[in-house]
Each structure stands twice: as C-alpha cells, then as structure tokens.
Amino acid sequence: MSFFKNQFANVVEWEEFRDDMIFWKWNNREIKKGSKLIIRPGQDAIFLNNGKIEGIFKDDGEFNVESEIVPFLSTLKGFKFGFNSGMRVEVLFVNTKEFTVRWGTQNPVLIPTPQLPGGMPIRANGTFNFKVNDYVTMIDKVAGIKQSYLVEDVKIRITSVLDQLLMKWISREGKDMFNLQANSAEIARGIREDLDMQVMDDGLAITGFQVMSFNYPKEIQDMINKTASHEMIGNLSKYQQVSMTDGMASGKVQGAGAASDMAGMMMGMNIAKEMMKNMNEGQSASPSASGSGNSGAKKPNFCPNCGAKNEGANFCSNCGQKLA
C-alpha cells in the first residue's frame, strides 16, 4: 500500500520562483493523497476553488496536505481523499516581501514656467517601493487571468502615469524651478499618494516613493552652476581673484608662456589697483580726521605759565604762551 501512496504523492510548491515574481499559480493538477505543501520564507500559500479563497497559509515549512491543510479549508474541510482520485484546486503562492524598483523618465517632462514659454524640460529618477496588501482584490483583478505577475508589470503601469504626476506635483510644490531638489520630499510625498490610489485596484500598496535627482538640460545646468558660484563668491572681481590665486597655488597657472605671464600680470595689476584704492581712501580720510581733532580741542581758562585769565584766545595776552 505504501508503494502506491508514494506513486501518487505530489509536492505542492513554488516551482518557478523568481525574486522579481509577485505571485505564481500552481494549477491544472490534482493534489493526491500523501501530498506535501512546501512554503518557503517570504511566501504565503492561498488555496483557491473555483476562483474563491479556501484558505490562506502564512507559516513557512513542510505540511501534509491531507492532515494539516484540508481540515482548515473553508468548504473543502470535509473532503476525503480517495485511493485513485485527488483534489483539484489551485494554489496561489504570493511573495510577501517589499519590492524596490528604480524608475527614471524616458523623455524630458515639460514643466510650465514663465521663464520658458515652451516649458522647462526636466528629467528625474529615483525609486519606489510596493508590496501586496489585499489578496482578495489581487485575485479578483489580476490572479484570475494571469498565471504569474512580475515586478516589471507593476513598473510599466507606474511609469505610464509618472510623467503626468511629476508635472502635477512639480508645478504645485516646485516654487523654485531652478532648485527642485529643495522640494523633492514634498513632491515625492504627493506622487506616492497618487500612485497608491492607482495600484490599490490591483491589491497592491505603494509603501515609498523617492526622487533621487532632478536633471536639467546642460545649458540650464551650466547657468545654474555659474549663478551659484557667483553668489557664493559675492562679486565677479573677487571671483576672478580667487580663481587666479587658486590656479597659481595649485600649479595650474605656472611656468613660461604667454598664458602664464598674462595671468600673472593681470593678478599683479588687480592687486596694485586694490592697494592704490585703499591708499587713496586712507589719505582722503586723514585731513578730515585731523581737522576734526584740532577744532574739537578745548582751550584752558587760565594760562599755565603766568596764571592770567584766558578769554578763549589761542595765545596768553599777558605772557604770550600758546594755549591751543
């Protein structure tokens, strides 16, 4: 008898497992007496009968179908295995992990902006996370017509609406069109909420959405970098001086040659110009300072030499002593 039991035994398991597979369906076969169900870590097994859920098993391990599974099935718990007949049901294996997917705009997204009538062409990239959270909805909408479901299927659906959502949330949250990264958290939060509504009908949930970077056309990016450099330095003349000093200190501007001589001459002229400017400012300030000091000096009421009373004169009327 044991010979026939082994002959009819089946192993129900996820046979075509791939790390990027969301679910896989075991079907079109009978589960015979003595069959084993194998659930690996990160998997759930859902028994289906005529498209309806009979039972969901979440614990990983190896189970005897007849003694450990059938008694917990909703409508098939009274089923008795016959010697030559089996139980025909479908088993849907679901990957329970959270998936992380990289995304990127295939074409520039034209964001309306007053500075550019045709719109600002922007590319973006990042990641999003999702997982299965509603088995009933997933079975009704997806598993009923698919043998398996891949991460790529979800990515295609997400990217098909992503350009519109980027345009919507950049226009809403992108107050500084030339520094979108500063508002990336708010933009990503809005997109995640909208995407979650999109995939909810498939029994999925978007658990995270991140924008890693926004990319501008080269001409605009060069302009942004140049503007930032000028603002960081403070003014153009100081920027030139610092650039020249850095070049000579690093050795990039050195040795014989017209370029090096010209750079040195320009730097010397600029330094001399600044020195002359400072000297002129100092000289123009000196007379006023000294004049102010003399006019403000207080004259004594009595002559320190002879003691005669002074009426505000610069010299003593009695002995001629200078008083101021």
Question: What's the SSE blueprint?
Answer:
Layout: H1 2-8, E1 11-12, E2 21-26, E3 30-31, E4 36-39, E5 43-49, E6 52-57, E7 61-64, H2 65-69, E8 87-88, E9 90-95, E10 99-104, E11 109-113, E12 116-132, H3 135-143, E13 148-150, H4 151-173, H5 184-199, E14 204-215, H6 218-233, H7 236-250, H8 258-295
Parallel strand pairs: 1-4
Antiparallel strand pairs: 2-9, 2-13, 3-8, 4-7, 5-6, 5-9, 10-12, 11-12, 12-14
Helix pairs in contact: 4-5
Write up what this structure looks like:
The protein is α+β, with helices and mostly antiparallel strands and 324 residues long. The chain is built from eight helices and 14 strands. It has helices at residues 2-8, 65-69, 135-143, 151-173, 184-199, 218-233, 236-250, 258-295, and strands spanning 11-12, 21-26, 30-31, 36-39, 43-49, 52-57, 61-64, 87-88, 90-95, 99-104, 109-113, 116-132, 148-150, 204-215. The strands form four sheets. Strands 6-5-9-2-13 form a five-stranded antiparallel sheet. Strand 5 (43-49) and strand 6 form a beta hairpin. The longest helix is centred in the last third of the chain and has 38 residues, at 258-295. The radius of gyration is 42 Å and the shape is elongated. The N and C termini lie far apart (136 Å). Mean pLDDT is 79; it is low at 1-8 and 288-295.
